[in-house]
Amino acid sequence: MSEEPRFTLDGRTVPFQDGQTIMAAALAAGIYIPHLCFNPEFTPHGSCRVCLVKVNGRMQASCTTPAAAGQVVQSEIDEVREIRRGLLQMLFVEGNHVCPACEKSGACQLQAVAYYVGMLAPHYTHFYPRRPVDASHPDALIDFNRCILCELCVRASREVDGKNVFAVQGRGIKAHLVVNTPSGKLGATDFSLSDKAAQVCPTGTILSKHSGYEIPIGQRLYDRKPINVVGDVAALAVSKGGRRHD
Amino acid sequence: MIESKLKVATCSLCGCFGCHMSLLDLDERLFDLAEKVEFDRSPLTDLKELGECDIGIIEGGIANVENVHTLLEFRARCKILIAMGACAISGGIPAMRNHYELKDCLEESYTRGIGLVDAQIPNDPEIPLLLDQVHPIHEVVKIDYFLPGCPPSADTIWTFVTQLLAGQPIALPYTQIHYD
């Protein structure tokens, strides 16, 4: 009789089912691997690379790599942590992430993961791109300066809401999030705050209007405990300081 | 023999002095600090000239020519240079002007403002020339330590300073690291 297959993650034995990724198996075992474009409710995207781990000596994105019996996976080692920190630093300089002026600060997954990987400064030269802010929608606004191209809103709108409101246009450094209307304005779509796409942004790109800065500094989602303890903002109910509508 | 005190200089470039207010928030701990360090040029001493120092603490990014000169002088005279706060580290709030052309910023303030009489953009030679964009200080000189926060709390500053003075590696607890 065959036993349940297993691999080791930082020395811990992790069981998995056939077809599961390393990330999914780790999540099921209660082990945190930092991530941004991954959300367990959606097909893995493998684009942000923050969830990379060393699998049998080779760097792989854990959200897209299938688990296999006997794999030796390393996550919380200096080599991996340094690469993750570098990725976060590049994300911070590529956009305009002005935490002191952002409503999402304190409950922002990008910021929380940066804290988790020990980023004290962005290190690289800032791009200071000039991207627009779209406030045309009555209930929501989009600040494209904060977009990290995780495509979670694209996937949520297409797969869950059936609206296909968002898309990514352009390639390489020119890739950017767009709204699928002739005017490119969110106000011209049937986007709604109850859409799944409004609840999955790991940054402060998609925000609701008419409320803000309601939770005092010190009591926000990630103020006291790190993201590996608290969980992703998109996975938590609104009543718990998260974004998920129940 | 009296142990010589470490010399510390501080300044605010393109910042709001909030980080220096946080430094003052050390309250009674300032007495402990004064046992170990002597302040050179700093808004706290009002000394204008910078001497040879062990530690330099910079608040704010660089937005004008004078900021750059001051920063270069600090780097040349301080053995250890520290970027304190969001503006020094990433440009912060002042860097939000990078979204616009400098000319537009000046015109918005000085020629299109409401109630202006004889409106003109100030051009007195004593006013330092503005840079076209605001930049963090690590883009100009080598920085040895980064202390994030807007501002970093007094507790964060205290943890950092005590570890630095004790020659320990810097290890801030989770609650003392924040970008806002």
TrEMBL record, chain A:
Which keywords appear in this protein's UniProt record, sorted alphabetically?
Answer: 2Fe-2S, 4Fe-4S, Iron, Iron-sulfur, Membrane, Metal-binding, NAD, Oxidoreductase, Translocase
Q: Where is the 2Fe-2S ferredoxin-type domain?
A: 3-79
Q: Which residues form the 4Fe-4S His(Cys)3-ligated-type domain?
A: 79-118
GO MF, one term, reads:
2 iron, 2 sulfur cluster binding
The record's section on SUPFAM superfamilies has: 2Fe-2S ferredoxin-like (SSF54292), 4Fe-4S ferredoxins (SSF54862)
Location within or outside the cell:
Membrane
Query: Which coenzymes or cofactors are required?
Result: [2Fe-2S] cluster; [4Fe-4S] cluster
Q: What is its main location?
A: membrane
Q: Which domain of life is it from?
A: Bacteria
One GO CC term, this protein: membrane
Report whether Oxidoreductase shows up as a keyword of the record: yes
Its BP terms in the Gene Ontology are: ATP synthesis coupled electron transport
Q: Which family does it belong to?
A: Belongs to the complex I 75 kDa subunit family.
Record's subunit section? Composed of 13 different subunits. Subunits NuoCD, E, F, and G constitute the peripheral sector of the complex.
Output this protein's name: NADH-quinone oxidoreductase subunit G
Species of provenance: Candidatus Competibacter denitrificans Run_A_D11
TrEMBL record, chain B:
For activity, the cofactor(s) needed are: [3Fe-4S] cluster
The record's top EC class is oxidoreductase
Q: What is its EC number?
A: 1.12.1.2
Alphabetized InterPro entries for the sequence: Hydrogenase_assoc-protein, NADH_UbQ_OxRdtase-like_20kDa, NiFe_Hase_small_N_sf
**Record's keyword terms, sorted:** 3Fe-4S, Iron, Iron-sulfur, Metal-binding, Oxidoreductase
SUPFAM superfamilies xrefs: HydA/Nqo6-like (SSF56770)
According to the entry, every stretch annotated as the NADH:ubiquinone oxidoreductase-like 20kDa subunit domain falls at 16-163
Q: What is this protein called?
A: NAD-reducing hydrogenase hoxS subunit delta
The record's GO molecular-function terms, alphabetically, read:
3 iron, 4 sulfur cluster binding; DNA binding; hydrogen dehydrogenase activity
